[in-house]
């Protein structure tokens, strides 16, 4: 019986994109399956292994807790962590020759029932062109880890109680300050409600201000989750077409003037990326004031504009206080953080406070603390500035790489802002079919026709591709060569 696995077992590979905790987990599982580690064998403490591999201790602990949850290892107090009794190698005879990187053939259940079944495969990074994901390689992980460790260490009894359903005041204050400086929004911290994502924000709005049966303007094409959530809440949707100036407000005035609310993406219309023009912004605000209707401004990536400074938010023009401003940390930090915010009209603060108490489970306090510190110490503003420069560069590289290969099949629009490109398909091709084929081939793509409220003829075929994680022109060209055969008629 060995007391320690050889350190070569843990040789990690940074080029695969597989998270380190996952690599450690897989290596140990394989070592058990291959008989290299036996019941009762001790594995290094999380602290020692983290030091040896130059990783954060939490990374190793994440791997160990997964292994413990699946019954591979057990903690024995002073004796450390050992391979659990009863775990059997799959092929006993192969034990002496086994190497850590051998494929898994295994003895114990492959998947813990509580691990996520849907969405991303945790082990992999974003798929090529996956929309809405910021440049994960450029996230300042060291700073984040330092602030996170400090916040954990500073935890007091008061931090362990139920947090306020509206969010931590420190974070709400930072958000209000940030919105003032960068989005031209004049609001107090009391108007800011921290939520666990845009959908949570929208849900809070429907619960607080709307009633089933209310008519709501939504952009068509638009962001499908908004429409789905509103429909589910019993709202009657009025699809408002979009053109080069954004939502056609005059269409709404003509066909559905008596609506209770409008949900818009003014900075970069989702998914066409066009900005809502100033005359339309003013017409929308005027309509809302006249009808006493609400405007939900979904400003999911307004910070990212490359040809000029970011446009001020619609909320910054809102003299009558009809706009609910919804922001998210998904694009400026990372989506797994599940943190967003909502700025509500002053007159509605009390109502929102009551419905947050009822409907909001409150965002995790620790995460809120870390983000508040990240903002207060200036890392947030610096990170956004760096990302703006990086995305401008990646956008240019992605266009050059894609155009070099696909130029006779597509025309690439490069909108002034946002996180994705629009590829107009030449000829009578189906954008939906191409998007589906790309997804089948391990890439990501969204077709414009998939973003319509209902199928409609005469919409130019177009697919959307994110460039934020495409780090070179060569990589873009490589991917374009994978798209090329998929453009052939089916
Ligand atoms: C149009 C739009 N709104 C909002 C969001 C943000 O959603 P969340 O805060 O749930 O990540 C996204 C994310 O992709 C989006 O594309």
UniProtKB/TrEMBL annotation:
Question: Is DNA-binding one of the keywords?
Answer: yes
Cite the entry's keywords alphabetically.
Answer: DNA-binding, Pyridoxal phosphate, Transcription, Transcription regulation
Which SMART domains does the entry link to?
A: HTH_GNTR
Q: Does the keyword rRNA processing apply?
A: no
Pfam families annotated for this entry? Aminotran_1_2 (PF00155), GntR (PF00392)
**Annotated InterPro entries:** Aminotransferase_I/II_large, HTH_trans_reg/aminotransferase, PyrdxlP-dep_Trfase, PyrdxlP-dep_Trfase_major, Tscrpt_reg_HTH_GntR, WH-like_DNA-bd_sf, WH_DNA-bd_sf
Q: Which domain of life is it from?
A: Bacteria
Quote the CDD domains the UniProt record gives. Answer: AAT_like, WHTH_GntR
> What PROSITE patterns does this protein's entry cite?
HTH_GNTR
Q: Where is the HTH gntR-type domain?
A: 18-86
Query: What GO MF terms are annotated?
Result: DNA binding; DNA-binding transcription factor activity; pyridoxal phosphate binding
| Family statement drawn from the similarity comment of this UniProt entry | In the C-terminal section; belongs to the class-I pyridoxal-phosphate-dependent aminotransferase family.
Query: What PANTHER family does the entry give?
Result: HTH-TYPE TRANSCRIPTIONAL REGULATORY PROTEIN GABR
Q: What is this protein called?
A: DNA-binding protein
Q: What is the lineage of its organism?
A: Bacteria, Pseudomonadati, Pseudomonadota, Betaproteobacteria, Burkholderiales
